Amino acid sequence: MASLDAMRAVQVISPTGPTDVVVRDVPEPEPKPGEVLVEVHSVGISFPDLLLSKGEYQLRPEPPFTLGVDFAGVVIDGPDGFTPGQRVAGVAGYGNAAERVASPADTTFALPDSLSFDEGAALPMNYLTAHFALAERGGLRAGETVLVHGAAGGVGTATIQVAKGYGARTIAVVSTEEKAAVARAAGADEAVLLDGFKDAALALTGGHGVDVVVDVVGGAVFTDSLRSLATQGRLLVVGFAAGQGIPEVKVNRLLLNNTDVRGVGWGAFAMMRPGYMQEQWAALVPMIESGVIRPPIGTTYPLEDFGRALTDLDERKVLGKAVVHVRD
């Protein structure tokens, strides 16, 4: 039984992978000025958690440290703008997979009543990344066509929904028919299999190509993604989930077709600009309220199975967003 000044948290004692992640008692957080004390209900599972558990992330906190990027819960206490009992979601580089967290007000967001805690915990990182990719880096316009790789995963489904919120047509690229069903349920207009996606995309666009490719996969798909672009198309590089090495760009192809390759590093950009995430959240709220944004929740796990959730993510068993329940 935990004492009153201790709480359960998911920790990395040694960065040797998800099977060594542990749940143990840690001290209660003590909020600093400008932080919101939150009772956490749900925590989203994400690739940074997986990489942190292996010691492979760009952030290298000193062990032991607490995992957890996205969370949703109820305000216990906070600065102006937050009231006890208010439902919120929040995001950080790590540290939120705990029974209570002290979250910076700038990265804590009012959670619309239409969404559950699980859906709230699926929102921040993926949907703010998708918004940054499409609106800030992609310059997406209504009526354009967006091709989404890894479309059944958390970032993929978020990208489909945010693109639809901006009035775009979406083509989901997936590896199986099961994943195609997930992408369609998330709102994709069409879903095509990875094998032969370039020709399928060209056929679906009458040979013109797509305006934007959102690529969280990298690896072998990269060249065909470039070849899928219409004139003045933009390929947005979000990540390298395929793990096949970082692809290279033959810049003569960009010149010949008037196309762009653009990096999408949401975290580094947003963290350096106070207030930016709140602006992003405000842009998403109308899409949430209209029902266009509704995060698809995949498997849910108890807190004790956080490590198993990371293993399932590593083995590509996760469809939609996996969520851990901190409390019933």
Structure description:
The chain is an alpha/beta fold. The protein folds into 2 domains: 6-123 and 295-325, Medium-chain alcohol dehydrogenases, catalytic domain (Quinone Oxidoreductase, Chain A, domain 1, Alpha-Beta Complex); 126-265, Rossmann fold. Helix content is 31%, strand content 27%. It is built from 11 helices and 16 strands. It has helices at residues 47-54, 117-121, 124-137, 154-165, 177-186, 197-204, 221-227, 251-257, 266-271, 276-290, 306-314; strands at 6-12, 22-27, 35-44, 65-66, 70-77, 87-91, 100-104, 108-110, 145-148, 169-174, 190-193, 210-215, 229-237, 260-263, 297-302, 321-325. Strands 3, 5, 6, 7, 8, 15 and 16 form a 7-stranded mixed sheet that branches. The chain has a 6-stranded parallel sheet with strand order 11-10-9-12-13-14, with helices on both faces. Strands 2-1-4 form a 3-stranded antiparallel sheet, with no helix packed on it. Helix 7 (221-227) links the parallel strand 12 and strand 13.
List the helices and strands and how they pair.
Blueprint: E1 6-12, E2 22-27, E3 35-44, H1 47-54, E4 65-66, E5 70-77, E6 87-91, E7 100-104, E8 108-110, H2 117-121, H3 124-137, E9 145-148, H4 154-165, E10 169-174, H5 177-186, E11 190-193, H6 197-204, E12 210-215, H7 221-227, E13 229-237, H8 251-257, E14 260-263, H9 266-271, H10 276-290, E15 297-302, H11 306-314, E16 321-325
Keywords:
11 helices; Quinone Oxidoreductase, Chain A, domain 1; globular; six-stranded parallel β-sheet; seven-stranded mixed β-sheet; Rossmann fold; alpha/beta; 328 residues
